[in-house]
Design goal:
172 residues; alpha+beta
Length: 172
């Protein structure tokens, strides 16, 4: 990947997180932000809530086995995760966010004290994405970190692929 392309994707990821922090719609992909689909944009399918609920249940089963409390969904994290999945789908690239998501714990948009992000694509089910994350040392460490108390899961289906974002955070 060229430095210019990497920088453009980095800037685009920052723009998506900034949009989540200010509750604006995420930017659409453009040539400067990374690859865009060759045809007119296909519709994004958002938040398949049953898949998100299944994913959270599987994650929390692993956390309980490790002696951690279950993660609790937080709307601000859910929104940020969904917007990031949308961005990755449009960019056709797995890109980690570099800006902390809003916590929304106290009605403000302060970032959490600590946060982590797991991303994935190509996994059609909750079981396959959680298995992939648990088989990866870094993702597993995030999921089993008992300091995290809240979560947001974003899932976007786009052009035959599923894009996943899992945010974990502590209270601010």
């Amino acid at each position: 990947m060229s430095t210019r392309h990497h920088s453009a994707l980095h800037l685009a990821a920052c723009a998506v997180v900034a949009a989540a922090l200010t509750a604006q719609a995420p930017p659409t992909a453009s040539a400067a932000e990374g690859p865009s689909p060759a045809t007119a944009p296909a519709a994004l399918t958002h938040g398949q809530s049953s898949l998100e609920a299944q994913t959270l249940e599987l994650i929390n089963q692993h956390r309980r086995t490790a002696g951690c409390q279950p993660l609790r969904p937080l709307p601000a994290l859910q929104s940020a995760a969904s917007r990031h999945s949308d961005f990755m789908a449009r960019a056709h690239a797995l890109v980690h966010s570099t800006t902390p998501p809003p916590s929304g714990h106290d009605g403000h948009r302060r970032p959490p004290r600590a946060w982590a992000e797991n991303i994935a694509t190509g996994h059609p089910t909750a079981a396959t994405v959680v298995t992939a994350w648990m088989n990866s040392p870094g993702h597993r460490r995030n999921i089993l970190n008992c300091a995290y108390t809240h979560t947001g899961l974003g899932l976007t289906a786009y052009q035959g692929r599923t894009w996943w974002t899992h945010l974990l955070a502590t209270a601010p």
